[in-house]
Amino acid sequence: MCRGLAVLPITCLERAKDLKTRLGILLHKPELGHRIGTSSKLQLGSRQSHQGRDSSQEVLEWRESFDQLLKSKSGVTAFHTFLKTEFSEENLDFWLACEDFKKTRSKTKLASKANRIFEEFVQSEAPREVNIDHETREITRKNLSGATSACFNEAQAKTRTLMEKDSYPRFLKSASYQDMTKQA
Asked: Count of alpha carbons within 13 Å of 137, Cβ hemisphere only?
């Protein structure tokens, strides 16, 4: 799909990036009648947590650590919604795909899932390419030859660190998360 981008003139690519930026800005303008995050707020009155705690308590725990957020199904959903507003949900989608991949027991399914994940997220110019360095990309490519449940560990760890250091702090400061904590 994205292989065709290489043949486009650089001005087209620059224009596409500019359009993406402008759309992102427009999505955040409250005067347009819709603010991102408000339509997808979590309902905080119900008991959602698998541990039996009130979900409002769970929302407050998300700020304690990135791990707390990732352990919560509703936390992952809220974080994913936030990442969509920043056009960076591929990082979380990749991390979740890797978590699911690790649960695969069949060797044949392991190999086909590994190739699918690599083609969608890791290879250069992948449709939903994650931001990892060339060295990690190459290590991951080599790991595919003998696909094990650990073949994405390094790429997954780098993506997780990027989310934890970059996106997670912005999520905690976002209007949607602040609204959720006020409800809690």
From this structure: 14
Architecture of domain 54-183: Orthogonal Bundle (1.10)
pTM: 0.71
Q: What is the mean pLDDT of residues 90-106?
A: 96
End-to-end CA distance of the chain: 43
Phi and psi at residue 99, in whole multiples of 5°?
-60, -45
The chain-wide mean pLDDT, for the chain, equals 80
Q: How far is CA 22 from the centre of its chain?
A: 21
Answer for the pair 83, 42: CB distance below 8 angstroms, yes or no.
no
As a 3-state breakdown, the chain gives helix, strand, coil percent values, each rounded to 5, of 70, 0, 30
For residue 34, name the pLDDT band (cuts at 50, 70, 90): very low
Per-residue pLDDT averaged across 37-48, rounded?
37
CB pairs under 8 A, 24+ apart, for 107-114? 110/147, 110/148, 110/149, 111/147, 114/144, 114/147, 114/151, 114/152
- Domain borders along the chain are 54-183
Distance from C-alpha of 155 to C-alpha of 18, rounded to nearest angstrom: 28
Q: How far apart are CA 74 and CA 122, in angstroms?
A: 27
Res 101: pLDDT: 96
Token code pair at residue 27: 């999505």
User: What span, in angstroms and rounded, lies between the C-alpha atoms of 130 and 91?
Assistant: 6
